[in-house]
Amino acid sequence: MPWARMRLLTIFIILTVSFTDLFPQNDSVLKFIFVPHPRSEDQAHQSVYPGIAEIDFAKYDVIMLGGDITYSTSKDSETLAYCDNLFNIRSPNTLWSLGNHDVQSGHRDLIKKFTGRESYYSYSRDGITFIVLDTELDANSFSSTFIKGNQLQMVKDVCDSIRDSRYLILLHHRFMWMINNDYFTSRLTDSIAASSRSMDTTNFYSDIYPLLQTVRNKGIQILVFGGDKSKINVAYSPEDSITFYAARLSTDIPDNTNNVIVLNYGLQNKELTWDFIPLSEVTTSVAQESSQFPEIFSLNQNYPNPFNPSTRISFDIPEHSIVHLTVYDILGKRVAEITKGEFSPGVYSIDWNGTSLASGIYFLKMNAQSTTGRIYDAARKLILMK
Asked: How far apart are CA 65 and CA 69, in angstroms?
């Protein structure tokens, strides 16, 4: 058979087997996780709190980090690489609001170079808009923290232009909305650091809160997550559709009283639900799941799809195998090699960035060969829309 006809036949087969998996099922549920203040007190090794490090973050579609990942997160590239291994901080789906321990070593440029983005930004997907603030940028130690200049303009631009989103999620580190708020006056003692309780945060209620109210008036629900250290759980709603959250996570209390917040988002009904989950339950469920290996090979449809420019690729490996993931264009030319190597039994997710490619249809091919001789081939259609 001539090569041209073979290539066309191959493309036809790939189109046929992958068409039904073009879009995710309408009943799909995305899982988000909010992790406040994950650092430990280990200054020598720059480690994350052990209960946090045990979580399998690959199972979450969006990771929201409240800041202070380690004691001196930007100390060096090795520390950032350690954080990336845990939280995939290079991924656009990992939202990181910088805390004082993240930047106190002064290496903001190192963080920017490592993550490829500014310290404050907005991000939208699936009917949800996220705003990530840098409350350390214009902070004066522990005496004040303001959102001003270009950062305030960014918030204004998002709040003015937001139309199609069902939710707006604001992520930041310092508890700007707790300070100078009558509701929290009696609750702050012994719940957040004394150095933070007297900070000047008046800028939040004078400049940020009115902007959130304009978004609320558009019928968009607003969730605000503060990621600084807290010994209380907070779900506070002073106004309809604006809810403020903090999660209790401290190194001096047990994991059955420490919490993260897990959110479930239905792609069909566009409804977002959330709950405080004890850290011990999150890590226990991960341990139970990790002991149950997949029974069959599987290459799942990437998500999101269409995507721009990043998408998540997940696959199942039932036994020790050599796995090769490759991307081809519509003509069958190989344009990217995502991974090639040995994989133990388990469930895997990889975030792939198609920035270097033009908009169009591509095909992801997976080839797996197990140590027992089993061979698995599968293909999925990828749509890159810039």
From this structure: 8
